[in-house]
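quick one before i forget lol
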Amino acid sequence: MDFRILRRMAHFLAVAEEGHFGRAAARLGLSQPPLSAQIQALEAELGVKLLERTRKGARPTREGEALLPVIRRLTEDAKQVEALARDLRNGRQLPMALACVTSALFDFLPPLVRALRDAQPDAAMAVEEMDTADAVEALRRGEVDFALARLDRDRPPLRVLRLGLDALVVALPEGHALLGRPGPLPLSALAREPLMLLPRSISPAYFDAQVSACRAAGFEPVAVREVGSAMAQLAFVAAGLGVALVSSGMAVLRPPGVGFRELAGPVASVGVSLVWNAERETEAAKLAVAVAQRVFPHSAGLPAVAG
């Protein structure tokens, strides 16, 4: 794509976010006339009007609102390209691209990245948050070197190194009656509770483990709402819209309005694994496997599930 249109997209994004040409121009280090010219040029290239002026400033048109998520993603991708190119110009070697599921961002990603930095201090590294399904596709296409995802077994050509066991906990809205019950909760206590579930398409193994656990507890889980991420689950729970079964790793966030309770058993979940594509195995992936085995010593005793 022409980098000029990417720059113009970034200018449109600034105006849309600031809601004002003057504030956007100051943010970008421009004067207003060149900024307005850049927006007009973008509108001409795309063939739609993106912004309309109001008494208070400016706001996206209906077409601008529709294009805003795509333009935001494109500009973020362009920033990553520029950052990686800058790192490479500065002498960094062995660029690494990795994907990470939301629930691994706080307990698995930091120690792995720190150890990779220690092993290859000059390596350029790009980290992107993805759900398991998207990470799998990115690995198959060779867009990332490795991923932290919720897979329980090899899925050729994808290889899996399990990094740790995990257990489910229940997230409850503040003031919920179950928060006052003593001891770990039996999973059956949630039989009549409205559940916030992640769609099966995001992580089939993780979803299936939750459904199997509920059935073993004597009830069929019925999602009152499917949400797109673990963070969205917690936000909806905080709003009082239902309860959620989440990875124990998410409980460390302690978001306001949400209480967490252990489940009796405990209730096993699909843990986080390091995943890489054996047919596209890069030097970065080989390094990640070696580092992960050292950082997560229990991984050696957690063979991939057969099947």
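fyi The longest helix spans residues 62-89.
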